[in-house]
Design a protein that fits this description.
Elements: H1 2-27, H2 30-37, H3 48-58, E1 62-67, E2 73-79, E3 82-88, E4 95-98, H4 103-114, H5 118-147, H6 161-191, H7 220-223, E5 230-234, E6 245-249, E7 252-256, E8 263-268, H8 272-284, H9 289-299, H10 302-319, E9 334-339, H11 344-358, E10 363-367, E11 380-385, H12 400-405, E12 413-419, H13 428-439, E13 449-452, H14 456-470, E14 486-496, E15 504-510, H15 520-524, E16 537-540, E17 549-552, E18 562-567, H16 573-579, E19 586-592, E20 606-611, H17 615-623, E21 631-637, H18 640-643, H19 647-655, E22 661-666, H20 675-681, H21 683-691, E23 695-700, H22 702-716, H23 723-728, E24 732-736
Parallel strand pairs: 9-10, 9-11, 11-12, 12-13, 20-21, 20-23, 21-22, 23-24
Antiparallel strand pairs: 1-2, 1-5, 2-3, 3-4, 5-6, 6-7, 7-8, 14-15, 14-19, 15-18, 16-17, 16-19
The protein binds flavin mononucleotide.
The site of flavin mononucleotide has 24 residues, from α11 and β12.
Domain Flavodoxin-like: 334-467
Transmembrane segments: 123-147, 168-189, 288-314
Organism: Phreatobacter aquaticus
Length: 737
C-alpha cells in the first residue's frame, strides 16, 4: 500500500517535483547574498520617522519603504516618469545602490512559484509540494519498516546498490525535504486562501483630514515605531490631499493622517500571521539563511531521488512475472498463490498458469500475501510456497499465515512446496502452510507435495496428479530458471586439512578488475559487491551445471571480498571445482539473504558453535563484533596442526576482545573429542549465559548439529529450560547442511 502510494506519486509528479526542488535550491542562495550585501536592521536603533525623513529628502516622490524578510530595506520611488528602487542603509538612510533582482532570479522565482503559468501554475506548483509531502512521508515510513524502526535509523540499508543509494540519500535529506514540502504546501494553500496567512488589510474607507502635510519626520505615529518592527511604509499619493500613510508592522496595519500625524485606524494581524511568517521563513530561509542553504542543498538531491526511484521501479516492473490474460479476482475460478524469495517459483507458477488456461480455466496468479482478496468465483486454490531457513516464509508469503486467520473462505486446496533436501527443514514452510489450512478446515484437493531443487520431473508428476483430480489434461513443462549471476574473481586462498583427509579452503573473491571498465558510467559508479552480511548465502553455479550450490558467507560486502569456507566433498562437483580454482579464476554467483541466521541486536552474549567449514559465518560474526558483546566460540576440527581454520585471526580477535573465549575440540589427536564434549564441560557457564539472554548460533554438518542439540537439551532440561522455546524466540538458530 505504502509502496504503491510512493511509486504512483513519484512517477506522476517526478518532473514537477524536480523543477520545484532545483528552482528552490537556486533561490536558497538569495538570502545569503542579501544578508552579505545589506547591513541588517538592529532592534531599537532607528525609528521609522527619522529614516523616512532622510529618504523623502533624497526621493521626494517616494512610494514605499519595504523591509524584506531578510532584513534588507528597499525604497521604491518615482523619478519623473520612471520608477526605481534602491537599497538603503538602515542606520543613516543613505542609498547603497539600486535594488535590482536579476532577470534570472525573477524568472527562477516565477518558475518556482507558478511554473511561469500564472494562477494555474501556482495551483500545480502547490500540488507538486503536496506530492513531495506524500513522497517524503511514505518514503520515510517504508525506510523505517525496512530498517526495523526509528531506533535502527543508522543501520546499513540492505538491497541493490540502487536501493541503497535511494534510501541512503533519503535518510540524509528526509527531514529537510519534509520541512520544505510542508511549508511550501502551506504557502500554496494560503495563496488560495484555503488556510489563513493572518495578515490584516487596511480598511479602505478612512481618509485624512486634508490640508498641508507634516514632514514625514514629524509624524508622531511613525516616531514611536522601531525600524525592526517595520514590514512596509506606503507613502500617501501626492495628488490626493486626503490620502494616508499605510504602515504595516509585525503587529498589524495602521493608517496615519498625513496632515496631523495621528493614527486613524489600526487592524491587528490575526493570530495566524506570526505562524505564516514563521512558515515563510522556514521555507525561504529569508531571515535564517543557514537553514535556507541547508534546505536548498537537500533539494539538490531530488533529481537523484527521481532517477534512482524511477530505475528501482523499472527494474521491479521488469522483474514482475507476467501472466498473459491473468484473470481478474472477480472472475477467476482457479487461484494460484506463489511464495517466492528468489523468483524461481514464479517460473513454475507460470507453467501451471499457462497449462490450466490452455485447458479452459480462468486462472489468476498472485503472491501468497494476496490471500485476503475476495475471489467470488474461485473453485480451488493452488499454493506454491518456497522455504527459507528454519521453515521460514519467503518474502511474497510473509503475511500469508496472519491473513489466513481472518478469512471465512474455505476452498479445495493443493499445496506444492519448493525447497532443497540439503536443508534440515525440507519444505518446512509448505508443511506449516498445509497444516494451517488443514486446521482451518480447508478441504484437500491433493495431499501436500514437495519439490526438491526445482526438479522439472517432480513438478510434471504433480501436474499429472492435479490433472486427474481436476479431470483436465495438464502437461506441465517448467524449466528451472537460472538465477541472474555475477562474476567474481578468486583473489586469495588458504588451504587446510589435506593431511587429515578434510581438505578445506578459505576462498576470498572480489569483483573482477575489468568490471570497472566498459560503459562510461562504470568509471563514475564502479560495480561493487552486492549487499551481504556474514551468514547470508552465496549460490555458486559450477561450470557444466545449472544447479546452484549454496555456501554460508564469512564476510560482509563492506570487507571488500566475498569469503567462503569450503570443504572438498568426495565426488562433489562444485566443491572440487572451487578447490581446483587458481588465483584469478572466476565463479558465477548470486546472493540469497539469510536474515534468520544472524546475531540478534543488543549486547546479550553470543554462543557460536560449529565444526569444520561451518566456522565461516561464525568468524564473520566475530570479526564484526563492533559493540564488544561477549562472544564464546566452540569449534571442532580434526588436528590443530592441519585444519585449525582461521587460527591467526581468532587469536587476534581474542587479543582485542572481539572474542571472549575460544573453545576448540580436535577429534584426531590423542585424547581428542568433539565440540559437544566442550559444551558439556562448560554446562554451568552456558546455562548462566542462556539465563542472561544469550543467543546460540550453530553452523556445520547435520550430525554435529544433532549432537549439539542433544547436549544442550541435557544442559537445559534440569534447569527447567527448553530448547524448543529458545528456537521459537530466535535464540537458537542453526544453519545446517
Ligand atoms: C538462504 C536459503 C535458505 C533456504 N532454506 C531452505 C530450507 O530451510 N528448507 C528448504 O526446503 N529449502 C530451503 N532453501 C531452498 C529454497 O527454498 C529453494 O531453492 C526454492 O526453490 C527457492 O524458491 P524461490 O527462488 O522462488 O525463492 C533455501 C534457500 C536459500 C537460498
Amino acid at each position: 500500500m505504502l509502496r504503491t502510494l510512493h511509486s504512483v506519486t513519484g512517477l506522476a509528479a517526478a518532473i514537477l517535483v524536480v523543477v520545484l526542488a532545483l528552482s528552490g535550491a537556486i533561490l536558497s542562495v538569495n538570502p545569503v547574498s542579501e544578508w552579505m550585501a545589506a547591513p541588517a536592521v538592529r532592534s531599537g536603533h532607528t525609528e521609522i520617522a527619522a529614516l523616512a525623513d532622510v529618504v523623502a529628502a533624497r526621493r521626494p516622490e517616494v512610494d514605499k519603504i519595504v523591509r524584506t524578510a531578510s532584513g534588507t530595506l528597499v525604497v521604491s520611488y518615482f523619478d519623473g516618469t520612471s520608477a526605481g528602487s534602491e537599497v538603503v542603509d538602515p542606520e543613516t538612510g543613505a542609498a547603497l545602490g539600486p535594488h535590482a533582482p536579476s532577470g534570472f532570479t525573477r524568472m527562477v522565482t516565477n518558475l518556482h512559484r507558478s511554473l511561469l503559468l500564472g494562477q494555474t501554475g501556482r495551483a500545480v506548483a502547490g500540488l507538486g509540494a503536496a506530492a513531495m509531502v506524500i513522497l517524503t512521508m511514505s518514503g520515510a515510513l517504508m525506510l523505517m519498516a525496512r530498517l526495523g524502526g526509528w531506533r535502527a535509523i543508522l543501520r546499513p540499508v540492505r538491497g541493490t546498490p540502487m536501493q541503497r543509494w535511494h534510501a541512503g540519500i533519503g535518510r540524509l535529506t528526509m527531514v529537510a525535504l519534509l520541512l520544505s514540502s510542508l511549508t511550501g504546501t502551506y504557502m500554496a494553500l494560503a495563496t488560495f486562501e484555503l488556510v489563513p496567512d493572518g495578515s490584516a488589510q487596511a480598511s479602505k474607507s478612512s481618509e485624512g483630514v486634508g490640508g498641508p502635510r507634516l514632514p514625514v519626520g514629524k509624524v508622531a505615529a511613525l516616531a514611536a515605531v522601531d525600524l525592526a518592527d517595520l514590514r512596509e511604509l506606503a507613502f500617501p499619493y501626492a495628488g490626493d490631499p486626503t490620502d494616508t500613510y499605510t504602515l504595516t508592522t509585525s503587529r498589524g496595519v495602521s493608517q496615519i493622517d498625513a496632515a496631523t500625524g495621528e493614527v486613524l485606524t489600526f487592524e491587528a494581524h490575526a493570530a495566524g500571521s506570526r505562524f505564516y511568517e514563521f512558515v515563510y521563513m522556514l521555507h525561504t530561509g529569508q531571515g535564517l539563511w543557514p537553514l535556507g542553504l541547508l534546505l536548498g542543498l537537500s533539494a539538490t538531491a531530488v533529481p537523484l531521488f527521481a532517477a534512482t526511484g524511477a530505475l528501482i521501479w523499472w527494474r521491479r516492473f521488469k522483474a514482475m512475472p507476467r501472466f498473459p490474460g491473468n484473470a481478474s479476482a472477480a472472475s477467476a475460478e482457479t487461484i494460484i498463490l506463489v511464495g517466492s524469495e528468489g523468483g524461481s517459483t514464479w517460473g513454475f507458477a507460470a507453467a501451471l498458469h499457462q497449462s490450466l488456461t490452455a485447458a479452459g480455466q480462468r486462472v489468476r496468479t498472485v503472491p501468497m500475501n494476496a490471500i485476503g482478496s475476495p475471489y467470488p468465483k474461485a473453485a480451488r486454490m493452488l499454493i506454491l510456497p518456497a522455504t527459507y531457513g528454519e521453515g521460514t516464509a519467503p518474502a511474497s508469503a510473509s503475511a500469508f499465515l496472519a491473513r489466513l486467520d481472518g478469512l471465512d473462505m474455505r476452498l479445495p486446496v493443493a499445496v506444492l512446496g519448493f525447497g532443497d533436501r540439503q536443508f534440515p527443514r525440507f519444505c518446512g514452510f509448505a508443511d506449516t502452510v498445509s497444516a494451517a489450512l488443514d486446521a482451518r478446515g480447508w478441504p484437500s484437493l491433493l495431499s501436500l507435495c514437495r519439490i526438491d531443487r526445482q526438479s522439472a520431473q517432480e513438478f510434471a508428476r504433480w501436474g499429472e496428479d492435479l490433472g486427474v483430480a481436476l479431470g483436465l489434461d495438464l502437461n506441465l513443462k517448467a524449466v528451472a530458471a537460472r538465477p541472474k549471476t555475477f562474476s567474481l574473481e578468486l583473489v586469495r586462498r588458504v588451504d587446510y586439512g589435506a593431511e587429515v583427509q578434510a581438505p578445506t579452503a578459505i576462498l576470498s573473491f572480489a569483483m573482477p578488475a575489468d568490471s570497472r571498465h566498459g560503459a562510461w558510467w562504470r568509471t563514475l559508479f564502479p560495480a561493487g559487491l552486492p549487499q551481504f552480511e556474514p551468514g547470508d548465502i552465496v549460490g555458486i553455479i559450477p561450470p557444466g551445471s545449472d544447479r546452484p550450490r549454496y555456501y554460508s558467507l564469512a564476510s560482509a560486502n563492506r570487507d571488500g571480498v566475498l569469503e567462503i569456507c569450503v570443504r572438498k566433498q568426495p565426488g562433489g562437483h562444485c566443491s572440487t571445482f572451487l578447490h581446483d580454482l587458481d588465483l584469478g579464476g572466476r565463479i558465477e554467483s548470486f546472493i540469497r539473504p539469510n536474515p534468520a541466521f544472524r546475531p540478534s541486536a543488543g549486547k546479550a552474549p553470543l554462543v557460536l558453535i560449529g565444526a569444520g567449514a561451518g566456522i565461516g559465518p561464525l568468524v564473520g560474526f566475530t570479526r564484526h563484533n563492533e559493540t564488544g558483546r561477549p562472544i564464546h566460540l566452540y569449534w571442532g576440527g580434526r588436528n590443530p596442526a592441519s585444519d585449525f581454520l582461521y587460527r591467526e585471526e581468532l587469536t587476534e580477535c581474542l587479543a582485542d576482545q572481539r572474542l571472549t573465549a575460544l573453545r576448540t575440540a580436535f577429534s584426531r589427536v590423542p585424547g581428542g573429542g568433539y565440540v559437544q564434549g566442550r559444551l558439556a564441560e562448560d554446562g554451568a557457564e552456558l546455562l548462566d549465559m542462556i539465563r542472561k539472554g544469550a543467543q546460540i548460533l550453530v553452523c556445520g554438518g547435520r550430525d554435529m548439529a544433532v549432537g549439539v542439540e542433544r547436549t544442550l537439551e541435557a544442559i537445559l532440561k534440569p534447569a527447567g529450560l527448553d530448547l524448543a522455546r529458545l528456537k521459537e524466540e530466535g535464540r537458537y538458530v542453526a544453519d545446517v547442511y
